[in-house]
Amino acid sequence: MQAVKDKLQDMNDMRKAKAAAKEEEKAEKDLAKARMEVAHEVRLAKEAEAAMELHVARAGEKAEREEAKHAPKNPNASGAVDSTEKGAMAFGPSCKRPPRTSG
């Protein structure tokens, strides 16, 4: 009878040990899964950051091209547009307009 009780006690101890080992394994798997999720989010953030840097660089290049298109071709020493340039007005900003005539 004692042998049966010992065998049952051993089986009960083994079941508890297996349950504890299984619980520990589950906790380790959960931790590993969380680490993988964090690593995945970090990778996505790095990719997004790289894409944003590329986007900003391209926008800067596009802005430089647009500025170059609209920059004056022959600026004089003061940086103003040369009056001989096509489309220049005969009256500068410091000159008064001629009086209007009623007609």
Task: Classify the helix fraction into a percent range.
Answer: 55-70%
Bin the strand percentage. Answer: under 5%
Q: From the helix content, strand content and strand pairing, which structural class follows?
A: mainly alpha
| Elements, N to C (H/E) | H
| Number of helices in the DSSP assignment | 1
What spatial form do the alpha-carbon principal axes imply? rod-shaped
Total number of beta strands:
0
Average pLDDT number: 84
Which sheet architecture does the biggest sheet show? none
Unreliable residue runs:
none
From the N-terminal CA to the C-terminal CA, the straight-line distance is 132 Å
What is the C-alpha radius of gyration, as a whole number of Å? 41 Å
Organism: Carya illinoinensis (Pecan)
Family: Belongs to the LEA type 1 family.
Region (Disordered): 1-28, 58-103
Biased composition (Basic and acidic residues): 58-70
